[in-house]
Amino acid sequence: MNIRDTFHIASKDLSTHKGRSVLTVLGIVIGIASIIIVMSIGESARMLIVKEIQSFGPQNVFINPGHPSGPFDVAGAVLSKSLTEKDVQDLMNKSNVSDAVLVNPSVTAFYSMSYGSETKQATIWGTGADGFVIYNLTLQEGRLFTNEEVNAKANVAVIGKNIAKDVFGLQSSIGEKIKIKDQKFEVVGIFSSENSSLFGIDDMVVAPYTTVQQKLMGIRHFHEIAVQASSVSAVPGMVIDIETVLRNNHNIDDPSKDDFIISTQEDIMNTVNQILDALTVFLALVAAISLLVGGVGVMNIMFVSVVERTQEIGLRKALGATHKDILRQFLFNAVLLTGVGGIIGIITGSLFTFLISVVASYATSLNFPFIFSIQGALLGIFVAGGTGLIFGIFPARQASQKSPIEALRYE
Which of 168, 229, 265, 383 could cysteine-pair with 234, CB 3.0–4.6 Å? Predict the structure, then answer.
């Protein structure tokens, strides 16, 4: 028999047992669709996060408390007092860091804020006026606070759109007073929805860092210092200057004992890519388990098919069919089953990915992109074909080795 005849017979065999074929294909469909969904969603998340990080500007450098050689400890970084006002002033000095254009310290806290009878838990971000430029923040309404208000420790605040909606509703919040601890802050602005959602600005109350430090938190150190370089090409040299300043200020001779972490946009993106790659591979392996189950199902169906068609195998061999013809016929059955399952799985996975991206965009207010993973599709086709060969070869070999006399006598 030629390949065309073999394919025709395999197709006819599968259509004869539609219910059994559908159930077998279903396991392959679920496995392939799962791989497509995981890999496509992973790529979508990667693009979304990279886009959000890029919105901060590639010329920005961020300094946080911590030890670069060890894992990042959030609690330790918040409690650390390693970044001080002297560090900020020395970083602003052009003779120390010649490429620094803006230097902005900031602190972060979590408090309840209230307005009338409304109360809401909020992130309080204390920053300088230059923070709005560095983080590329824009307004929907009102104004931003100024350097003069930062120096005067003014009780002014700019709030996120979710804060404005949840606390003030349809009422304008500009000029109103919100209460945080025992301090009243005048709302002077509302952030635009065009800002980075991953940064969480929609749920923040932003006030001068001097006010947050002294009137709310009672501290003098900083949780972050952001430095903007004159250009992207100047960032590597500026990082070296920053390290020199901080090590001199902190009396550090051994770089392995640094009590600060310097991050560039490239560093952040590399870290994000590593995390997403590891997560995607892990989830894809988990999804592949269903393919293993589907492969076992294919093997079982093929064994049943061999038993049911024992007399047919004997008749074919009696009429001149070779071991190779029988082996190829049953292998084609298995590969055709998994191949059809693979194609349906790719289509199903793509449709589910599209629906997930639409729902995620609507639910999170993020522009979650739909991406069809070419790698996932190729992997799905390869795995589907491989599953058919691996789990179909043993039943097919068993069928090809049957004696035609014994097969014809089988009942």
Answer: 229
Beta strand segments in 220-290, E: 224-229, 260-264
Q: How many CA atoms within 13 Å lie on the side-chain side of 400?
A: 16
The verdict on residue 66 lying in a domain is no
Residue 392 pLDDT more than 70?
A: no
Residue with tokens 């901060």: 56
Check if the beta carbon of residue 284 is closer than 8 Å to that of residue 380.
no
State the residue range of the domain holding 316: 3-53+270-409
Taking only the tens place, the pLDDT of each residue in 165-217 is 888 887 888 999 999 998 999 999 999 877 666 578 888 999 999 999 999 99
Judged against a pLDDT cut of 60, whether residue 407 lies above it is answered with no
Q: Show the tokens assigned to 167.
A: 């606390």
Is the whole model's pTM more than 0.70, yes or no? Answer: no
Helix (H, G, I), strand (E, B) or coil at 98: coil
65 located within any domain: no
For the chain, what is the radius of gyration of the CA atoms? 32
Question: Do residue 221 and residue 295 come from a single domain?
Answer: no
Q: Which two tokens stand for residue 90?
A: 């020395």
The answer to whether residues 238 and 382 belong to one domain is no
Best mean pLDDT range from 10-24, 324-338, 397-411? 324-338
**Given a cut of 60, is residue 87 above it in pLDDT?**
yes
pLDDT at 96: 94
d(C-alpha 316, C-alpha 305), whole Å: 15
CB-CB contact of 30 with 386 (8 Å): no
Gap between the Cα atoms of 25 and 33, Å rounded: 12
Of the residues 234, 258, 282, which one is the last residue of a structural domain? 258
d(CA 2, CA 315): 18
d(CA 40, CA 44): 6
Q: What is the mean pLDDT of residues 105-124?
A: 91
Number of compact structural domains in the chain: 2
Please report whether residue 60 resides in a domain.
no
User: Is residue 111 domain-resident?
Assistant: yes
Among 258, 288, 318, where does a domain finish? 258
